[in-house]
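Protein modeling request. Please complete all fields; requests missing the sequence field cannot be processed.
Requester role: graduate student
Desired output: 3D structure, C-alpha cell encoding
Chains: 1
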Amino acid sequence: MVARPPLKVAVSPMTAADIPAVHVIEQASFRTPWPAYAFRQELETNRLARYLVARVGDEVVAYAGVWLMVDEAHITTFAVIPGWRRRGIGSALLQAVMDLAIEMGAVEGTLEVRLSNLEARRLYEKYGFRPVGVRPRYYSDNGEDALIMTTDRLDSPRMRERLDRLRMPEASRQKAKP
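Delivered output (178 residues):
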C-alpha cells in the first residue's frame, strides 16, 4: 500500500457561491437533505449561524454549520463528500469549527449524531465530545435515535491541550506522546 501525501485543506467561511457545491455534498451525505435555499437563508438571515467550507484545491469537499445558542456552540450540520472521507478533511474542518466556537465566545460545544454513525462519533470523541443523552426517534427519515454529545468547557486546560495537540502535524503528535 502506498501512503498518500497529506492533503492541503483550506477552511473558510461559506459564501452564497459555495451553495451549489455544498448542496451536492448534502445530497450525497443525508437521506433527507436540506434544500439549497435553506443554506442561503441560513447565510443571509440567521444571525446565530456561521458556516464553513473545506476545500482541496478549488473543490469544496466538506462543510459545517454552527449556531451560537447563548453560550453553546451547537454544530447543526457537518458533512464530507463520500469520495473524500477518511483523509483528514473532517478533522481539519472540526478543528476549524472548534476554533470558531471559541472565537464566538462559546463555553461548550454540542451536537446530535445518529447512533449508527460510528465514524462520525469517533471523530467527535477525538475532539472531546462525549455522550450525554439520547433524543428518541430524532431523525424523520427512519426514526433513528440521535446521540447528544457535548464537550467540557472550551476554555478548560484539558480542552485547550486537546485542541492544541490535535492541531499539531501527525509526526509531531507521535513524538510528543509520553
